[in-house]
Each structure stands twice: as structure tokens, then as C-alpha cells.
Automatic annotation (TrEMBL):
Descriptive protein name: Small ribosomal subunit protein bS16c
Record Gene3D superfamilies: 3.30.1320.10
Main location: plastid
Protein's cellular compartments: Plastid, Chloroplast
Top-rank taxon, per record: Eukaryota
GO cellular component: chloroplast; mitochondrion; small ribosomal subunit
Organism: Dysosma versipellis
Keyword Chloroplast found: yes
Gene label: rps16
GO molecular function: structural constituent of ribosome
GO biological process entries: mitochondrial translation
PROSITE patterns: RIBOSOMAL_S16 (PS00732)
Amino acid sequence: MVKLRLKRCGRKQRAIYRIVAIDVRSRREGRDLRKVGFYDPIKNQTYLNVPAILYFLEKGAQPTGTVYDISRKAEIFKELRITH
């Protein structure tokens, strides 16, 4: 099963998260299938590759709670009508 989840990057006390499509059995910093965006909680910036996210969601990938909230704020789910 594939999940859309956060992968921590950046330095100590200054985390930046990549949003990745990754196998459920992989660890947090494990090898991802594809990078589909990033999230910076300090500057509150987000970049999402919407076509890639929609592709993985259509194939059955499940977003984690945080990725779901980030995507919902970007109004990605209006096209798919997905409820969490």
C-alpha cells in the first residue's frame, strides 16, 4: 500500500518536510516512490505537485492526517470528492 506522508528534511530546530508517495512499510526517511511537494511549517509555505498527487490518490494511495489537511487547504479534494 502507498501512502502520501511527510519526510523530514532540513537541519536541527529548522525542519522542512517533503510530501512523498512512499510504501507503508518504509521508515520515515526511507526511499520514496516520488516527491510530490514540500511543506515549511516555520514560513508556512507549501508547494504541491497537484497532478502527481491526484495520480496517486486515484491509484488508491492514502494520505496521512497532516498531508490530508495540507491538501484540503489547497482544495485538491474538490476535484476528486474524497472524504477522510
